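Quick one, T. Sequence first:
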Amino acid sequence: MSDLKIIILAATGLVLFLYGIDHFSKEMQSLAGDNLKRIVQKLTRNRVSGFCVGAFATAMTQSSTAVTVITLTLVGSGVLTFKGALGVIIGSNVGTTITAQLVALKLTELAPVIILTGALISILPFRWKIIGRLIFYFGFLFFGLDLVGDVLAPLGQDPRILKFISETTNPYTAILVGIVVTAIVQSSSVVTGLCVVLVQSGVLPLSLAVPLVMGSNAGTTVTTIIASVGRDQNTKRTALAHLIFNVMGVVVFAPWVVSYTDFLRGLSSDSAQTLAWGHIIFNLAIGLVFLILLRPYAYLLEKLVPASKPLRPEL
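Structure tokens:
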């Protein structure tokens, strides 16, 4: 197979994955409707429940970006308090790890069955139609990843790729690549899922996949920052909270990334499962630290983004 054909097929698979994850997220939000907002408002009165709401909502929509942007909207409209939003933001990072787990469990192989099942259910009337579309796009996103994995698998033995990987030994470079790629595609789930597939295919070594996935956490904050431009102080604080939380996680883990990767290798002989568990442990550890320090963290953010001073009345 020529290099051009490999690039075209891999790009097609990635586009299908992006299309699937985007529409799956929209269908899930459509199915939940206004009930999602009411549930979020009711269940975010303390840090633990807010954390669980963020994790669950992200696991269901397969998009921490969507959950974060919705959270910013709720904060801006006064439906959700700033402190309540912090728990949701932290939880969303843990919820996004479900994508890596599902890919590592080789759910991609069942993609055609899931797509067919969703298509058949979508023929039915009323709410079943929405559920059918939801299942269809869920299968669709894994079908895209499966295509990428199948196309790129032979590259694991390509001398050029092996030479490039052997020369790219700096984990900080991999972290930077993860940040940049995630900022471009606007989805850490895409980068993480792709890394798991490439590890399964033998194209990407675990030593580079772990820092790539770490970097994806920081790259996903770009959308949140953009969405907060021109908004009120609480919305800006929430966006800044998302940025600091994700960046600090990478900064704390980065010096230990080699040791962390060695530790993960002892968890499983399956590299894809190891990477998926590494993603969970990384996000859960950082999330619990910030959850425990939520009050001083909120206080710091209020100082960094102070409330607007009222305009002086004209004399």
